[in-house]
Amino acid sequence: MNAGVAQVRGEDTLGPRNYQLLAKFIYDYSGIKMPPNKVTMLEGRLRRRLRATGLATFNDYCDFLFKHGGLQNESIYLIDAVTTNKTDFFREPNHFNYLEQVVLPELKDRGIRRLRAWSAACSTGAEPYTMAMVMAEAAQANSGSDFNILATDLSTDVLKTAKAGIYPVEQLDPVPPHMMAKYVMQPKDKKRTNVRITPALRSKIGFGRLNFMDKTYPVGDPFHMIFCRNVLIYFDKKTQEHVLSQLCANLVQDGYLFIGHSESVTGLDLPVRQVANTIFKRI
Questions:
Q1: What is the pTM of this model?
Q2: Which partner for 123 in 10, 29, 87, 159 could form a disulfide, CB atoms 3.0-4.6 Å apart?
Q3: Exactly one of 153, 202, 229, 282 is catalytic; which is it?
């Protein structure tokens, strides 16, 4: 028996069989690897699904999923429970500096007046709202230019938060003061600790659910830039190549792809060339 998934006497845990069933389903459905050293995390996150379904044990839950047809309705909630959704405004700021100083001026010089951008793993929305702030500043400086952003994620839970655009005020600490003044609404009641992204900025972003494991991505016309950061680390090489190939297929020629600073495309057959650290151009 694998020590990472051993049954602890007197405590409800995932046994090896149930762990393997869940890990295979999660990988097949989402591409996310769930190695044995993640079993404790998996148990912790699934306990809320036990409470929500009224099932007493992990064994009952897995029987419900895999023996009694529960996957049909439960799969979205299961995936929501196990996905990791770490995000911050202006996370990895070098990317946003490059967007402001290189990408947007270049696209302007190419005569592109309406930009299409995609935040391809948007989590609770900090990334697409950061993109929107930077792009709105450029649009205001260039009369006649405009933009829109598609923001997608696998998790329906985080998409609800992203659409609402409401955050604890301290989460927006990285936002420059002049952008806070323009794009973030302060509460009238000073006792409230949440703030909200302005309606004008929220209107520039469309949110939707997308599974990277789909064969093709129904996202409309190609994009001038795609941010897909800090999600590839959860995939094996085969899945990384599938995801990145599909992203590149949805980039215009000379469009930009941004990945996370801890991620790499080394060894993957992709139609891109590197132009900066973890920033690539479609060829």
A1: 0.87
A2: 87
A3: 153
